[in-house]
Description:
The chain is built from 27 helices and 18 strands. Strand 7 and strand 8 form a beta hairpin. The radius of gyration is 25 Å and the shape is globular.
Amino acid sequence: MDAGRRLGGTGFGPVGLWHGGDCALAFRRRPLRDTDGHAADPVIGGDGSLVLLGSGRIDRQADVIGQLGLERTRVWTDAGLMMAAFSRWGEAAPERLHGDFSFIVWDRVRRRLTLARAGLGSLPLFYHRGDGFVVFGSTPAALIALGLFPRDLDHATVGEHLIGSAADNEASIYRAVRRVPRTAVTRIDPSDSSPSGARTAVYWRPRRGSVLRLKDDQAYVEAGREVLADVLCGYLRSTQPLAVMLSGGFDSGAIASTLALLAPGREILGLTTVPVPGSAAAGGAIGREWDLVQSLARRYPNLRVQPVAEKTLTPVDEDARTLFDATGLPLTGISLMARRFALARAAERAGAATLLNGDGGNRTLTSEGNGLFRDLFLAGRWGRLARETVSAARYRRKPVMSFLWHVVLRDLVSRPVLRAWRRARGTLDVPIHDGSFLRPDFARASGLERLFAGVSHNPSRWKWMHQADLDTAVLGISPSQAETFTLCFHGMGLDYGAPFRDRRMVDFVLSLPSDQLQRNGVPRFLARRVLADRLPPETLAERGYFPPFADAEDWVRGWWDKAAETLDSQHPVDLAAAAIDLPRLQARLAGGAPVFERPSGADYDEIVQGMANALYVNAFLRWHAGRNQ
C-alpha cells in the first residue's frame, strides 16, 4: 500500500494492517521506549467497542495508573494507558494526561471517530471527511496517496506559509484536508452537521491564572527545578540515544545539563551548528557560543558535544523536493532551513532517536520578565518602578530615557493612547504581508486578511499588546508550517520535543510573580538561580540572548546567485504568479546578495524570512503542479 509506505521513516518497521468491519488501519511502528516491546496495534477496549491507535509518550505513568485504579504489577504501554484513560474519561482524557502523544479512537457502536493530540512534539494528525467515509493520517502525503479526494491547495494557507504565521489552526495546505490543532480533540460522527463534519475543542491554551505564592525565593528555585525535571524525565524513558540542539545560551543548556544530571550513567549528545570556517560570522557571537558549549561539556562527563559544519537546506536544494514527496507539505522558516535540518541530519547519522531543542524558553523559564514594570505601575509602587527602570537600563547598557520610552512606557500607557500615538505616526496598521513577498491582492482574495482580523497575533495588534499578553499569544500560535518540522524529523527516525513548550512548564511560568523573572534590573532572574549549579559561570553572566542566526548573511550568499538564475529560467505556475510578488522577488535577487549590519531589522527580515519563504513556496507550488521533473 503506497499510503502506508509514506508513514514513518528511518528505523520504522514494515507496514502493519488491521481491518475490523467498517474500520481499516495502516501503521508503522518504531520501538523507542522501555514498554514498546509489549505494544500491540491497535489496542482494543471498551469490551471490544473501542479501537485505538496511538503514538507517543505518556508521562507520570504511576499517577495515571493510580487515578484509573489499574493493576500496578502489569506492564502498561503508552497506548494501553491512552485506551484506559479514554475508556474512563472519554474526550476529557487528553487534558488529564501529560506527555507528547497523539491517538485516534474508533467507537464501533456510536460510529464516532475521535482524534486527539498533545503539544508541539506530538505527531500531527490530518483528516478528510468524504461522502460516507473518513480518512486520517499523520501526513497529507499518505492521505493523498489514497486518491480519494482532489489535491487542490488552500489559498489562504499558501499565504500563511509566505508570511510565516497562521490564523486558522485547523487548515492545511490542502483544501480537502483538515488538521487537528495542538492540545485539541476532534470528533467526527454521522450526526455532526457542521460544515467540515467535525467538531474540534482545544482543551488547553496558555493563559495567566492565579499567581503562585511560595514562602521565599528559594522555594521558587526548587519549584522551577522540579518542573524542569518532571518534563524531561519522560524523554529518558527512551532506550535509544538522546540528542539536544545545543547552543551557548540558557535554554538548550538547561535541557542538556538537566538530562546529564538526571541520567549520569547515560550519554547525552549535544549538537551545535557552527559557521563555515573562514566566514565572517565565525569570529562573532556565534563563535563565542561554541566556547560556551565546550565549557558546559567539561562540567558533565556524560555530555558529548559535536560541532556541525552546516550543510544548510537552501531554497534551491534537491533535499527540499524529497521532503515535499515525503510529507506533502511546503518548507518554510529559517530555523528549519538554516539550522534544524542540519542538526537533525547529524543526529540521524549519530544514531540518536530523540532530538530536543530549547524552543519557547525565552517565553517561559528564561523570559526576561519585562511585565514587571506594568505590574509595579498597577500596584502603585512608584519608587520600586523607578529603581527597576534605572537598574534595568544600566544592566542592558542602554540610556535610561531610551529604555524608559521603548520598553517601560510601551507597557504602561493606555492602549487608546498608544494607538493614537501610532496613528499619528502612521504606524498603527501593519499589513499581514509586511516583510514578505505575498501579493496584497492575493491576501485579500484568499480570505487571509479576514482570517487574521480575528486573531490576537494580527501584526497590527503586536504593536500595542502588553508584554504579558504578548507572551501568551506567541506561545499559542500553531502554524501549519510547524507540522513540517515534526514530520521531517519523524521521517529521519527522530522523536522531536520542545520541553519548554510543555504545558506543565508554560503553566508554571505563567503563574509566577513577575519579580521572579526580573529583579534589580537583572532579567531572567529565576532562570539564573535555577541553573546556577548547572551552567558555566560565563554562560550565566551573559546579559542578553545570542542572535539566533548571526551567520544568516553567509547562508543567504550561499544560494543567492543560483536562486536568481533558477527563478529567471522558470515559467511560473499560475498559483505562484497569483500569490507571490515574483517580479519584486526577481528584482531583489538581481540587486546582488546583501550585507547585513546586524542580524535584525526590516531588510534582514524581508530577505532571510520573506525571500526564503517565497522561494520555498514557489518550489512547492511547482512540485505540486508537476513541474519539478
